[in-house]
Amino acid sequence: MGAFDYPASPHQRRHGPQGYASVLSYRPWLRDEFTFRCVYCLIREQWGRVTGEFDVEHFRPQVSRPELGVTYDNLLYACHSCNLLKGAKELPDPSQVLTVETVRVNPDGSVEGRSPDARRLIAVLGLDSNSYRRWRSVWMRNVELAEEYDQEHFRRLMGFPDDLPSLDQSPPANTRPEGVQQSWYAKRQRAELPDSY
Ligand SMILES: [Zn+2]
After folding, report:
1. How many A from CA of 148 to the centre of ligand 1?
2. From the CA of 39, how far away is ligand 1's center (Å)?
3. Which of 12, 59, 61, 74 is deepest in the core (most CB within 10 A)?
């Protein structure tokens, strides 16, 4: 599993909380849903300070679709810089169009879109800019060196955060209640959590 491997297939939501008044109440669900990574650039919570670095992103922008402001299926987990660049633009859904098939990540840190939607997202978000290439190549090397020389450090970089959200606080409604048992927290309780992902 590489540092920048996009998901194997389009994302199918496991969770369906509904009815929270505040968008922030959905945050723990989104962290779990999208495995503690930005859906656009794949930066991981474990690579930074977390606080202030990740946002709840409105896929259909609030300016044009205010009625979807607290609708879970319209929310994504994104880093602050991708969220800023995405802004109020109408773009393809990254959770559906960025997959291992449609995004080729090269050893020099550059990325190539292999579908029109993936190419559009890469272009609009600048995911193949020089600074992103450099950032990606630095992290690919960090992970490679850690894997070779320091397994504990590798697990810190590529493993799960300690504060897995328990998701046991019942939301007002949940269209996919079975997802709670599939959460990373529940997997850790059952000793099924992988060392890295
Ligand atoms: Zn990002």
Report:
1. 27
2. 7
3. 59
6 C-alpha to ligand 1 centroid (Å): 12
Helix (H, G, I), strand (E, B) or coil at 103: strand
Give the residue carrying structure tokens 């997202």.
121
Q: What is the pLDDT of residues 153-186, one digit of tens each?
A: 999 999 999 999 999 778 999 999 999 999 999 9
Instruction: Give 85-134 pLDDT, tens digit per residue.
Output: 998 899 999 999 999 999 999 999 999 999 999 999 999 999 999 999 99
23 C-alpha to center of ligand 1: Å? 19
Q: Domain extents for the chain?
A: 17-189
